[in-house]
């Protein structure tokens, strides 16, 4: 039981974002939206949970994310109306002929209308639950019967029937007379969809590609440029810069091959956009690391070579890397385990096993970046953990030396991404090569805050306070009897587009001044004289200047 000394708290690894920090989040998101729109991206919002198999197939069963970090649960089974209809029809054998299924007449939906061999017509409703709702169903059915008679112009006798599933094996077909023209029937059987495994999304690329396939976005023949901003969920060990619910700002560029989606130009454009975004956000000292993991075939070949090279030295690696050597040897290249570094550096490099077209693709990406003046370093060990990556992979980091520079400690990767030419096919879709990235928004914010803090002594480049804007004015009513007038004045000013806070007439003037100074640029004093004369006293905090302004000129003057 929660108590005042032990109240409920946010779940471990999750956190609340509060003002004024949320102002910084909004600022970051608005800069991101502005950059994305200049590069022709549109926003996509996919569900926060998806069928588990999407991630198992897309991200890969052997990845850390899928094998141990997902929040997955069994969803409850769902009623399957169609299987109940089929069972009912089957039970009737050839005594009935369905006239219509799922038709709508006079704005109402009919589950099934059948004509008996005897000439009788029945309107049948298939319902999940019998209890409680029976009277409602019966009343609806009566209405449906008359609507149908009118709309179809039939002279035949029409009766209604409500059919419910019964899961008790003992209850046989049971007919209950509910109303002279309506019958109720129970059918034994299980008419439920089996339960479904669902997962809170640990990343958003698989969801975007699923949506691309589901909505046939490739049919337009156009390149799709989509961005998203939203929370992701991974059951990782929480630490600074690593949360169980964290936010990503990401984008994907994909499309049929004919749309140019495979072109190295796309890779370079995405990277150049990221450099612009980080610059506009004011992130200092970012570093772009780049590599190519080749085509799916290159990777297969390389992984085999890696396994051979690992076989004789495996036992010298840490436990985690020994496990990776079995399950996902590429991940060893990502390892930060200090004792394993020398061995890992000596392993074969993927760059030496790329086929000519992958090598050429990578060279073109680099050449385009050079032409744009975007600095990068090639890191042959950058392979990234997820199964779907092909060819270009990249990461942007901020220096972690001295920690204060990035605010991230060891979690110094701000964002990561890469090309995923085979992902759509892995999810059952058409060929749709693509490239994308995800920025860790939490880490971006931590970095901005740390860099602002570090710069405080010098020229403040990006102080948190510059992200927060002060309100235009604080209205201080003198005495509770002025409260209503203060609210009315606030309404007038707010509707004129100004940002306003209203104090309370019970405050002493000194308290009002202190409160106003914290949140607003001006204080407007509303006392008896001011109300009577319509001339208000306004003080500007930055200059200390105090003036009298008529109510008619107030909005104009506060704005200036
Ligand atoms: P990934 O999808 O693993 O490539 O991650 C992309 C980016 O998301 C990383 O570079 C991080 O900035 C961020 N990120 C990943 N996992 C977390 C986490 N648990 N907490 C905060 N940020 C994360």
Describe the structure.
The protein is an alpha+beta fold. Helix content is 36%, strand content 26%. Helix 1 runs antiparallel to helix 7 (264-281) and helix 7 runs parallel beside helix 12. The longest helix has 19 residues, at 134-152. It is flat. Adenosine monophosphate binds at residues 203, 234, 236, 241-243, 246, 248, 413-416, 438, 440, 442-443. Residues 203, 234, 236, 241-243, 246, 248, 413-416, 438, 440, 442-443 line the site of adenosine monophosphate (AMP).
Provide a compact summary of the structure.
The chain is of the alpha+beta class and 560 residues long.
What's the SSE blueprint?
Blueprint: H1 21-38, E1 42-43, E2 49-51, H2 52-60, H3 64-68, E3 72-75, E4 78-79, H4 81-91, E5 96-105, E6 108-116, E7 121-126, H5 134-152, E8 158-166, E9 174-179, E10 182-188, E11 192-193, E12 196-200, H6 205-214, E13 224-233, E14 245-254, H7 264-281, E15 287-292, H8 296-310, H9 319-327, H10 330-334, H11 341-345, H12 356-372, E16 377-378, E17 390-397, E18 413-419, H13 423-426, E19 434-440, H14 441-454, H15 464-467, E20 471-477, H16 483-495, E21 500-502, H17 509-519, E22 520-526, H18 528-533, E23 535-540, E24 546-550, H19 551-559
Parallel strand pairs: 1-13, 7-8, 8-10, 15-16, 20-21, 20-22
Antiparallel strand pairs: 2-12, 3-12, 4-11, 5-6, 6-7, 9-10, 13-14, 14-19, 15-17, 17-18, 18-19, 22-23, 23-24
Helix pairs in contact: 1-7, 7-12
